[in-house]
Structure formats: structure tokens, C-alpha cells
Design brief:
By secondary structure, the chain is mainly α. The protein is about 50% helix and about 0% strand. About 0% of the residues are buried.
């Protein structure tokens, strides 16, 4: 496992921007770890999603700046992370 901490103040160099632009135009390469999805695989994926669709309710929630800072450091999908953490906390909560 590789751990990497993103420097939020870092900027891409012109060379890095060129590399990324070039990579964006390259074709996808499939291999044994990441094979191309067959029609059967796609059908199974869609069936699983229909069986257990994502649903939720829009919620406005005020969270402390320190919590937001910490969860943003977990990745770009920090809102999804907060949702999962809230779901887990509610599931484990016991009324006294």
C-alpha cells in the first residue's frame, strides 16, 4: 500500500500539464487486473444497482471548520465520506 499526502498549495508545472493532456488522449488499456467489461458483467452490474439503488435525502448540516478540514483531507469525495460516517454513527447510536 502506498500512502500519499497531497500538498494543497502545489501547482502543476507546464511539463506536467503537457503530460496529463497527452495521457487524456491515450486509449484505455485493459489487463487481467482491470478487464474490459463484458455484456454479462455490465448486465450484472446494472441488475445489482437496480436491486439496491442509491437513495438519500438532501440535508443541510452545519459542521465545525476543524471537522470539515479533517474530512477534506480524506479526499475529493469528502461529502460522500461524511455521509457514510453519519450513517455509521446513527447505526451504532444507542438511546440511553
Amino acid at each position: 500500500m502506498v500512502t500519499f499526502e497531497l500538498d494543497k498549495t502545489a501547482t502543476l508545472t507546464d511539463e506536467e500539464k503537457k503530460i496529463l493532456k497527452k495521457a487524456k488522449g491515450l486509449p484505455i488499456t485493459f489487463d487481467e487486473d482491470s478487464p474490459e467489461m463484458t455484456a454479462d458483467m455490465e448486465e450484472a452490474f446494472l441488475a445489482a444497482r437496480k436491486e439496491k439503488p442509491y437513495s438519500g435525502e438532501l440535508l443541510t448540516l452545519y459542521v465545525s471548520p476543524s471537522t470539515i478540514e479533517k474530512v477534506k483531507s480524506m479526499g475529493a469525495d469528502y461529502i460522500a465520506i461524511l455521509g457514510k460516517l453519519l450513517d455509521k454513527a446513527v447505526a451504532e447510536y444507542h438511546v440511553m
